[in-house]
Amino acid sequence: MFSTATADSVPAAASPYNSTVATSLGRRRIPIHTTFYWGHKVDILFHCWPGDSAAMYAVALILVFAVAVLVEWLSFTNIVKLKPGGSNDVVGALLRTGLYGVRSGLSYLVMLAVMSFNGGVFLAAIGGHVIGFLVFGTRAIMKKSSGLDSSKP
């Protein structure tokens, strides 16, 4: 008879709807969620962070949201302007490459936070990307506030 196994080769047939897999790290077993779950007792990015505190969980959600907004800002910002034939083409290209690296690193951190499979972290990340795109990608808020709405004839 076939049975699926967890990370420790313990048969998982006892609970077909088990959403966690326990893996050994040294002498202790760490539950790893394989489906989304709700609750503030979660490890995000680092062991024991944010811990069991609901306040620290809220701080972690705000941080994930802010990093997702920052990723969107870095995606649409034009801090380094390259002028064709300019004397600082190499420096500008290196700065833009550095910003791309920072954006990629932050994007991976948001992805790793979502891989905690916590529903609140997932919603914070998606909300941060959506709000960041709304503000920086569509420029809808800036156009309305500055009176430069291009939809008017």
Describe the structure.
Helices cover 49% and strands 10% of the residues. It has helices at 54-76, 89-114, 119-137, 140-146; strands at residues 20-25, 28-33, 42-43, 50-51. β1 and β2 form a beta hairpin. Residues 1-18 and 147-153 have low confidence and may be disordered.
Brief sketch in words of this structure:
This protein is mainly alpha-helical. Helix content is 49%, strand content 10%. It is elongated and about 60 Å long.
What's the overall geometry?
elongated
Please count the helical segments.
4
What is the helical fraction, as a range of percent? 40-55%
**What structural category characterises the helix and strand content?**
mainly alpha
The major pleated sheet works out as:
2 strands, antiparallel
Strand content: 5-15%
C-alpha termini separation: 72 Å
What is the chains' assembly state?
Answer: single chain
Given as residue ranges, the uncertain stretches (5+ residues, pLDDT < 50) are 1-18, 147-153
The number of E-state strands comes to 4
Radius of gyration: 22 Å
